[in-house]
Write a structure and sequence with these properties.
rod-shaped
């Protein structure tokens, strides 16, 4: 009888250790997920700011300038064959 109680107690202690390691694993994963989430949020917030800054520093040329640019590119590309 004592032997059975000792075996059951040993099994219970083993399960407690397994559960403890499981809980520690979940906590450790949450510790590593938090910085990843913060980094993802920062990237998501910076992307629109970068796009706005790019539009300010490199505005689209007026329509007339686009046509002129296309003509110049066509002219110079035709000279490459000469």
């Amino acid at each position: 009888m004592v032997k059975i109680i000792a075996e059951v107690a040993y099994m219970v202690v083993g399960r407690i250790w397994i559960q403890l390691f499981g809980v520690m694993g979940v906590i450790a994963s949450l510790v590593f997920v938090r910085p990843q989430m913060r980094q993802t949020q920062q990237i998501a917030l910076v992307a629109p700011q970068t796009e706005r800054l790019h539009k300010i520093l490199h505005p689209d040329p007026p329509e007339g300038a686009k046509v002129s640019l296309e003509r110049n590119q066509a002219f110079f590309s035709s000279l490459d064959g000469c």
